[in-house]
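Subject: Interface between my chains keeps coming out wrong

I've been trying for a while to get a sensible model of this assembly. When I model each chain on its own everything looks fine, but I need the whole thing in one frame so I can look at the contacts. Pasting all components below, labels as-is. Any help appreciated, I'm running out of ideas.
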Amino acid sequence: MNMMIESAKLGPIAIDSERLITFPEGIPGFPEVKRYALVENDKGHPFFWLQAVEDPDLAFVVTDPLIFKPDYRPALSPEELKELEIEQLDSVVVLTILTIPHDDPLKITANLLGPLIINTTTRKGKQFVLSDQNYSHREPLSLTQLLSAPAPEIAGKK
Amino acid sequence: MLVLTRRSGEGIVIGDQIRVVVIEVHGGQVRLGIEAPAGITIYREEVLNKIKLENKKAADVDPTQLKKILSKKDRPSEGEKGPKK
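Reply #2:
Try treating it as a single job with all components included. I did that and got this:
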């Protein structure tokens, strides 16, 4: 069933209420917002919007981190996997939130320290904070690499 | 805030499911052992704050700036030729 959101960033958008992603604890910094929709920005590039349902003003730009960091392997403990009821790894989608600085938008960074892990079966997600100090919350991105990548098949489309 | 004094090897219990033990006190550092149910997330405070701040910054994104970035895709040479800041 479609519902409309008057997104402050994207304008009016129609989203499928059965394809929402629930973050039971919210996302750190926004604990009160639990439900999000993954929205394609434009076809043919790897950026998506994670639009909050309860707060039309709130939206993040996200992407598949493997596009620019093919060896990215956020290590989750068995307890953390259990928390998201993850039984099979093929029902997991990993996304990373991008920060686009106002003063220099081309200095885009990815939050690899805090990946969004989504169980595509239950459509529940959580932003984990990795204990692996090798990953940064402000990993610089190569735009050339990112923009030459094909649009990935991710959670909202499956 | 409740303040308690503990020695190395001593612990505190929070509710009936969380236990914190002082493993070692050395120099200016304290090593803690924490037992909690799987659903309770435990973070170093400054790391969680870093993530919160970054999320706030990321949420402040201006969609026209994303468009600007994407325009680079159609004109990939523009970025290289443009004046450096």
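Reply #3:
Confirming on my end. The radius of gyration of chain B is 24 Å.
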